[in-house]
């Protein structure tokens, strides 16, 4: 049935395409025909590998924690600067990535430019290691950060552009899984790459480290190639199908910030305090598992990457579940409490860390599925771009600061204290969730409504709004306020689809470009 | 970007304030008890220092017991700890006999009946091996060992209740091996890593090897220790895992060299250390290098010569153990040409790290506040519901 529909729509596309191209030409073979599914699959492959390099290289420092620290004579605080420098440009870029893609470069050129940034960043990073110049490595991470997050935006814009109304949810799911595969492969393979580099160079040291980082940089080169190919294919499709270049459609208006409701600020607090207890921990995890649990380096890297491995299959399933059940605040609370439990397990017990890390992976996926869509409930659609941009910006700010603090804590107070610090962050997050629950309850908001309740509300709101529109003029402000509950369902789906949730076709979003690494991870 | 950076700096600064405040943790621990320390160099010997090395005597007098710490560099450097149940016990040295180095009983603790037990630790040999394949296994390629009994030891350098002893073998081109003994009058811990917790019943020995020219570029080192005791010498090593690495970051183990299991009592001696050495004179986490230790085994006929042991014990029982520095993949000694390792020798229950108050406070506040919020919020909502319900009643 679905197949049939798809074929219908494809045929429709093809017909449109040919017409637009100006009269019947020689029919293209399916694989070269931009309107055909087979061609789109080819495009999808390039699309998926577009982000592979940046995901692979993002966690290079974590995968080589001991080697980086030893070969470059660093302390942990300095080591964590590598992560902080990645986050700094994104404190600002979260607001402008979409603008740059839409207005300045265009999607094709923009993608290539951001891929170049990723490539050049990684090369600078590796060169810094080769020459044993740490400031150069930091600079490399900074350049890498400029490209990395914006590349994720570009990747999603491409996906929307090519698969809108078709296999979009599946495509988002696949991109997400590729991202995780990139992180996981990195975690598990870089140790081996380094040992090969040592064998090649003769001795461990900054040369071997630089060499292995250069090798890791090949994945970025590969992604750059994908960007070029995609640009070419997109241009070609534009000519043949006469379609428009993709747009993120992101509108950022910083003055909207003053209108953000209390609930949104609470969501921000949850987001920042939660994620700062995840990523910096993964960045520092390897040595923890080696020293505390007597793991071999390979085992430690494996357990460190389990969070990513789990979230790949768990995100769609959990997303579907949250979507069906609703009650987002409760889910967020469950996720935060589970994360707290996982961190406390790691801090205060010698239990096998596979348990805690698996729990962390699950709860982390659950949080992503339940938390990010909530933003769409509390702000009107026209402020959504600003809200998401702001959320990611302060999240990056938090990550940069906590990365620096975490390194300093580890150097001075050890892992127990670091874990306690992360627990406190999670506790702050938990406080915000509890407050969110009560605030929402008192306001009679729909954050914690069940899915059925939401559908009912949506129906009422729709008819209500229609009545109003018919009977009298509604002031603009009022309309904006009312717009939120009205379109909440659709909006939420739009952001859910980013997380790889499988949604029915008619819920498919028209764009979903605000997704950054932090969301995808 | 500038304001963001300074914001980060402020954040870090306020965090360091927290760190500093957590250092004042002894307030919570409560002062256990204090020993009165008295330090005496070459007890009972008139002016000229004895040839061949000094003898240091530190008396740590408690309420009704005394610990005698004797540290001597005649022969291999030795620390002897004698525990007596009298607060007036004394050490008697028969110097002419003591300097003959072969007469048992030339150093006595009087009255003899007050002796509860005694333990000594002898730093006997320094071993070096060429770790060609970076395996950190000292099975082969051992260079001829340095016997510490043949070293030339400089006079003891005293400051307060600590003494510094440095020496070098005749074959050392440059560099030295130093031992620093510190005796404590109360509980506390060093500011320097590994920040071992010590009690008033223990002394700390820090050993470091500074500037020695290694005999191969891939040299690693081992230190041979001998534990000497009367009836029940230290004979087994116990590994204790701890979740608390606040004081020695990234180290989650404590090793203890103890008497046989059935002979371990409250008053028995112990040697305690954390399996970490440091490659710089100002130790930091990233300069930490794991140590491994072999199982102790009886050393019959292989005892290192120590004048102190010969003078005090009639029939010494000796167990030997090697501590090896560095594991596979770690930098070799040649890189920094420095190694330091710290160990405690004491009597009684070995001190154990416990959570600092800072951790407890953070966990309590962190977990307590959301709970309180939950309860408060719940109560508030219940009250509101009640109120609104009663408000509606009159209308109905």
UniProtKB/TrEMBL annotation, chain A:
<feature type="transmembrane region" description="Helical">
    <location>
        <begin position="329"/>
        <end position="348"/>
    </location>
</feature>
<dbReference type="GO" id="GO:0022857">
    <property type="term" value="F:transmembrane transporter activity"/>
</dbReference>
<keyword id="KW-0812">Transmembrane</keyword>
<keyword id="KW-0458">Lysosome</keyword>
<feature type="transmembrane region" description="Helical">
    <location>
        <begin position="354"/>
        <end position="378"/>
    </location>
</feature>
<feature type="transmembrane region" description="Helical">
    <location>
        <begin position="79"/>
        <end position="101"/>
    </location>
</feature>
<feature type="transmembrane region" description="Helical">
    <location>
        <begin position="262"/>
        <end position="282"/>
    </location>
</feature>
<comment type="subunit">
    <text>Homodimer. Interacts with lysosomal protein GLMP (via lumenal domain); the interaction starts while both proteins are still in the endoplasmic reticulum and is required for stabilization of MFSD1 in lysosomes but has no direct effect on its targeting to lysosomes or transporter activity.</text>
</comment>
<comment type="function">
    <text>Lysosomal dipeptide uniporter that selectively exports lysine, arginine or histidine-containing dipeptides with a net positive charge from the lysosome lumen into the cytosol. Could play a role in a specific type of protein O-glycosylation indirectly regulating macrophages migration and tissue invasion. Also essential for liver homeostasis.</text>
</comment>
<dbReference type="GO" id="GO:0005765">
    <property type="term" value="C:lysosomal membrane"/>
</dbReference>
<feature type="compositionally biased region" description="Basic and acidic residues">
    <location>
        <begin position="460"/>
        <end position="476"/>
    </location>
</feature>
<keyword id="KW-0813">Transport</keyword>
<feature type="region of interest" description="Disordered">
    <location>
        <begin position="1"/>
        <end position="23"/>
    </location>
</feature>
<feature type="transmembrane region" description="Helical">
    <location>
        <begin position="37"/>
        <end position="58"/>
    </location>
</feature>
<feature type="transmembrane region" description="Helical">
    <location>
        <begin position="390"/>
        <end position="410"/>
    </location>
</feature>
<feature type="domain" description="Major facilitator superfamily (MFS) profile">
    <location>
        <begin position="37"/>
        <end position="443"/>
    </location>
</feature>
<feature type="transmembrane region" description="Helical">
    <location>
        <begin position="209"/>
        <end position="233"/>
    </location>
</feature>
<comment type="similarity">
    <text>Belongs to the major facilitator superfamily.</text>
</comment>
<dbReference type="InterPro" id="IPR036259">
    <property type="entry name" value="MFS_trans_sf"/>
</dbReference>
<keyword id="KW-1133">Transmembrane helix</keyword>
<dbReference type="InterPro" id="IPR052187">
    <property type="entry name" value="MFSD1"/>
</dbReference>
<protein>
    <recommendedName>
        <fullName>Lysosomal dipeptide transporter MFSD1</fullName>
    </recommendedName>
</protein>
From TrEMBL, chain B:
<keyword id="KW-0472">Membrane</keyword>
<keyword id="KW-0458">Lysosome</keyword>
<feature type="transmembrane region" description="Helical">
    <location>
        <begin position="358"/>
        <end position="383"/>
    </location>
</feature>
<keyword id="KW-0325">Glycoprotein</keyword>
<comment type="similarity">
    <text>Belongs to the GLMP family.</text>
</comment>
<keyword id="KW-1133">Transmembrane helix</keyword>
<dbReference type="Pfam" id="PF15065">
    <property type="entry name" value="NCU-G1"/>
</dbReference>
<keyword id="KW-0812">Transmembrane</keyword>
<protein>
    <submittedName>
        <fullName>Glycosylated lysosomal membrane protein isoform X1</fullName>
    </submittedName>
</protein>
<dbReference type="InterPro" id="IPR029382">
    <property type="entry name" value="NCU-G1"/>
</dbReference>
<comment type="subunit">
    <text>Interacts (via lumenal domain) with lysosomal protein MFSD1; the interaction starts while both proteins are still in the endoplasmic reticulum and is required for stabilization of MFSD1 in lysosomes but has no direct effect on its targeting to lysosomes or transporter activity.</text>
</comment>
<feature type="signal peptide">
    <location>
        <begin position="1"/>
        <end position="24"/>
    </location>
</feature>
<comment type="function">
    <text>Required to protect lysosomal transporter MFSD1 from lysosomal proteolysis and for MFSD1 lysosomal localization.</text>
</comment>
<keyword id="KW-0732">Signal</keyword>
<dbReference type="GO" id="GO:0005765">
    <property type="term" value="C:lysosomal membrane"/>
</dbReference>
